[in-house]
Amino acid sequence: MSLSAFDDLLAQTKALADATRLRLVALLAGHELSVGEAVAVLGMGQSRVSRHLKILVDAGILWCTRSGAWALYRVPDPVPPIVVPVLAALTQDPQIQADRDRATAVLVERRRSSVRFFDALAGEWKALSQEVLGDVDLDALVMEHLDGVQTVVDLGCGPGFLVERLAASGRAVVGVDHSPRMLEAAARRTQGLAGVSLRLGDLEHLPVRDGEADAAVLSLVLHHLPRPQAVLLEAARAVSAGGRLIIADYASHGEERLRRRHGDHWLGFSPDVLEAWVVEAGFHVVLTRTYPLPSRLGLILLVAQRPQGADSVSPKEES
Questions:
Q1: Domain range list for the chain
Q2: So what CATH class is 123-305?
Q3: CATH of domain 3-91
Q4: Which residues fall within 8 angstroms of residue 197, CB to CB, at 6 or more apart?
Q5: pLDDT of residue 199
Q6: At how many degrees (to 10) do helices 94-121 and 180-189 cross?
Q7: How open is the CA angle 125-129-130, to the nearest 5 degrees?
Q8: Are 178 and 115 in contact (CB under 8 A)?
Q9: What pTM value is reported for the model?
Q10: φ, ψ dihedrals at 301, nearest 5°
Q11: CB atoms within 10 A of CB 125
Q12: Which three-class secondary structure state does DSSP give residue 62?
């Protein structure tokens, strides 16, 4: 064993030799949580939990994904070899089961809070978006890449502005959103337009059949979502072989105010990260462009395609 491998093993062994850190590892093998959410689950002080998380991250047992002041923690995939027998040994432990049950409740409340937030903003969503976009016609940019597409699924359709324009152009459109108030606004906007189907649902578990659409659109949506990669896998399932994926989202930035005012989960993305996630979901990237916005943020437009003859994609099962 090399000195480096010995040192790594020693650091990981020491990191696991603590009851609180074992609870965190077992918890974060099945859930991705913020510090505050881990605190709520374990019922401990934030400084104590943060210290234990840092030890586990430094030892390579946890991954930390940061976006501005926000951080999410989870056990890496694949699971580090030293962690595999630990998880197996802890699976039936009553305290670990109780932690996981509390984590599930925390995540349910996270989703409910998100629904309440977007329900409250349904009537002013266009104005909020224009604070960032200015006079940039994002829907027009997206539609430039939908030539020849007959059926589009708009994921996170909000109050239906893009759905309205797509339907008015003669396309069949499926609009999906988790906010009932957003869908009510979309229904009013698209009343009388043929070919519109509005569906209430979670973007990680789409109410869409395999291959139902020729294209999927995620327009200023991914940065609101805790697990963008899971949503991209669902988008791949919903798109037919040879179909398209269009993503419009903000480039990485440091505007924490958007998290508070707009409900942003991520402070944008780098093009490289988006491309890697899209490829991982089974698409081929056709183009990636970045446009400057009047708000001094950058807008990434990414167009990708599922290979012809591609099999249906199913989301990875959670451990």
A1: 3-91, 123-305
A2: alpha beta
A3: 1.10.10.10
A4: 172, 173, 174, 175
A5: 96
A6: 30
A7: 120
A8: yes
A9: 0.76
A10: -115, 120
A11: 19
A12: coil
